[in-house]
Write a structure and sequence with these properties.
Elements: H1 7-40, E1 51-56, E2 59-60, E3 65-70, E4 79-82, E5 88-90, E6 92-93, E7 106-113, E8 115-116, E9 143-144, E10 159-162, E11 173-176
Parallel strand pairs: 1-11
Antiparallel strand pairs: 1-2, 1-5, 3-4, 3-7, 4-6, 7-10, 8-9
């Protein structure tokens, strides 16, 4: 069975169809490129799970920043973590890493610091009103509660080797002491 279209519809179809065909072709190409580029995109470095613990003078250290800096010649990437209330940390790589996912394989210098600001002096309740005295701003600079030797890449004696698979256990427990051991400059 053969259908006959009115001439006006035929003219409209002949002008519109090539335009729509070109537009459709362009959309297919753009969508295809999006899939190829999207699927081939690097989602960050290959990382290994790293979990450890920081203890200072026998007490779990909460709120400390743990840094992993690759030893010269190592293939690792810089990584960081923050300790929780039990001193536990889970590492995140700095370039494209998912939070708490881990660090790239390699040898690292480990640094630990925890900077706190003094809250300032408390004003004396001179008038005896019993109102909570206002705090005066502190003129003291923030301080690191962890001995400085542990906070610097060039002086920290702490090390980690990240291998394929899960990295945790005694090798990742950092038992820091005050006063700290003597700095070992240049050992990186």
């Amino acid at each position: 069975m053969h259908h006959i279209m009115p001439p006006a519809v035929c003219r409209l179809a002949s002008r519109t169809a090539p335009h729509l065909a070109r537009r459709g072709f362009v959309l297919v190409i753009v969508a295809g490129l999006g899939l190829v580029v999207g699927c081939g995109r690097n989602r960050g470095p290959a990382v290994q799970f790293v979990e450890g613990k920081v203890v200072l003078d026998g007490e779990s250290l909460e709120g400390a920043t743990v840094g992993l800096s690759p030893v010269k010649g190592s293939t690792g990437l810089p990584a960081y973590a923050r300790t929780d209330g039990k001193g536990i940390f889970r590492v995140t790589s700095t370039r494209g890493g998912r939070r708490d996912a881990g660090a790239a394989e390699g040898d690292y210098v480990v640094t630990v610091s925890k900077v706190v600001a003094d809250e300032g002096d408390v004003a004396i309740d001179e008038d005896g009103s019993g109102k909570k005295p206002a705090r005066r701003p502190s003129l003291k600079p923030p301080r690191n509660v962890v001995p400085d030797v542990y906070a610097e890449v060039d002086t920290s004696p702490l090390r980690a080797t990240i291998k394929s698979g899960a990295n945790s256990g005694p090798a990742f427990v950092y038992d820091l002491k005050s006063p700290a051991p003597k700095a070992t400059p240049g050992k990186r």
